[in-house]
């Protein structure tokens, strides 16, 4: 099973679980994702000719492997159905090589990909539509929603730095905030774009 | 001649009119659906300075046209890309400058100088217009 006990039924329930960045990161660690050394080993396997034959997510009851370029991100257990599209898109960003935007962009940092997957599994749920998964030119990943009169962007700039931009047209409410430790403000913002909101 | 004070780096070129269109390529990874405004637009992520430290690249659209070139010439070798335009005036209204930086491979190259805050990127993303929209990008058609 995933180390995520969130069933997606109630944002308040999630708020009780996610108190800060440490808690967020602890939701899936240790052991939920490959360590750096395991990543290197996986890459080395590929260099010896064991190219990944299947670029799709591989899932069993005990482990899910998400292809990310020459590497794979391992997650304990099966992915919830609602998370699959977003995590597949995050995995595809691993195929971007340097200069993927024609303006000198860097490849996507696998640690940012892991952080984005953690964010998806910890904070999203079945009532929240799949975000647009957008690569950032410095190697980060941005999750975006533009619906219900709300624009919400969460930029994973590094595994410990997230920048949230929120704007609601009707109320004129607007904010931009860097988050490093306290993810609680995100819960309320995500509720604004939720199908159940 | 660029506006400059002795000993300082020029931050804007007043010979580039406010009405001058600035074109920027948009990779397909930066096409996002905006249900609030309808349609597909570039993500704010498409309007960043270079990770190496230089300012955001654009092309002076009118100079491309004056040289008898097509907008598609700016997208040569970039299959699936779109291209948007915004004005130099919009950039200046967001405390940005525009400087000519011709390159051997692109004589109309310029840079948009200034810090790309969330507000700046949002303005470019929302107020730019497609020159080569996503639906045409794969077919090499301009808007």
Give a verbal description of the structure:
The complex is a heterodimer of chains A (197) and B (143). Chain A is built from six helices and eight strands. Chain A has helices at residues 11-17, 21-26, 36-47, 81-92, 110-123, 184-193; strands at 58-59, 63-68, 71-76, 132-135, 141-147, 150-158, 161-168, 174-179. The longest helix of chain A is centred in the middle third of the chain and has 14 residues, at 110-123. Helix content of chain B is 18%, strand content 25%. Chain B has helices spanning 61-66, 88-93, 118-127, 134-137, and strands at 21-26, 31-33, 40-42, 56-60, 82-87, 97-100, 109-113, 129-132. The longest helix of chain B has 10 residues, at 118-127. The model of chain B has no long low-confidence stretch (mean pLDDT 92). The chains are: A alpha+beta (197), B alpha+beta (143). The interface between A and B is medium-sized, with 31 and 24 residues.
Kindly name the structural category of chain B.
Answer: alpha+beta
Strand content of chain A: 15-25%
Radius of gyration of chain B: 15 Å
Shape of chain A: globular
- The oligomerization state is heterodimer
Summarize this, please?
Chain A is an alpha+beta fold and 197 residues long. Chain A contains six helices and eight strands, in the order αααβββααβββββα.
Task: Give the helices and strands, then pairings.
The complex is a heterodimer of chains A (197) and B (143).
Chain A: H1 11-17, H2 21-26, H3 36-47, E1 58-59, E2 63-68, E3 71-76, H4 81-92, H5 110-123, E4 132-135, E5 141-147, E6 150-158, E7 161-168, E8 174-179, H6 184-193
Antiparallel strand pairs in A: 1-2, 2-3, 4-5, 5-6, 6-7, 7-8
Helix pairs in contact in A: 1-6, 4-5
Chain B: E1 21-26, E2 31-33, E3 40-42, E4 56-60, H1 61-66, E5 82-87, H2 88-93, E6 97-100, E7 109-113, H3 118-127, E8 129-132, H4 134-137
Antiparallel strand pairs in B: 1-4, 1-5, 2-3, 4-7, 5-8, 6-7
């Amino acid at each position: 099973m995933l180390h995520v006990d969130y069933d997606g039924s109630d944002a308040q329930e999630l708020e009780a679980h996610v108190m800060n960045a440490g808690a967020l990161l602890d939701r899936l660690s240790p052991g939920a994702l490959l360590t750096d050394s395991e990543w290197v080993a996986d890459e080395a396997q590929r260099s010896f000719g064991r190219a990944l034959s299947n670029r799709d997510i591989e899932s069993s009851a005990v482990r899910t492997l998400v292809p990310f370029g020459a590497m794979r991100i391992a997650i304990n257990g099966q992915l919830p159905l609602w998370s699959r599209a977003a995590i597949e898109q995050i995995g595809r960003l691993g195929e971007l090589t340097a200069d993927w935007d024609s303006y000198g962009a860097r490849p996507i940092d696998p640690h940012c990909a892991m952080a984005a997957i953690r964010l998806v599994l910890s904070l999203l749920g079945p009532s929240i539509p799949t975000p647009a998964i957008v690569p950032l030119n410095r190697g980060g990943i941005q999750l975006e929603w533009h619906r219900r009169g709300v624009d919400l962007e969460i930029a994973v700039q590094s595994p410990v730095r997230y920048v949230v931009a929120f704007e609601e047209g009707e109320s004129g409410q607007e904010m931009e905030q860097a988050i490093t430790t306290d993810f609680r403000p995100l819960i309320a913002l995500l509720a604004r774009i939720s199908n159940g909101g | 001649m660029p506006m400059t004070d002795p000993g300082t780096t020029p931050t804007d070129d007043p010979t580039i009119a406010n009405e001058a269109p600035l074109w920027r390529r948009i990779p397909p990874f930066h096409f996002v659906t905006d249900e609030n405004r309808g349609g597909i637009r570039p993500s704010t992520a498409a309007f960043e300075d270079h990770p190496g430290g230089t300012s955001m690249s654009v092309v002076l659209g009118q100079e491309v046209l004056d040289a008898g070139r097509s907008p598609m010439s700016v997208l040569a070798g970039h299959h699936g890309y779109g291209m948007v335009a915004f004005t130099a005036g919009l950039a200046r209204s967001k405390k940005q400058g525009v400087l000519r930086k011709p390159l051997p491979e692109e004589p109309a190259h310029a840079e948009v100088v200034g810090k790309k805050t969330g507000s700046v990127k949002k303005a470019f993303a929302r107020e730019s217009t497609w020159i080569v929209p996503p639906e045409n990008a794969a077919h090499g058609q301009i808007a």
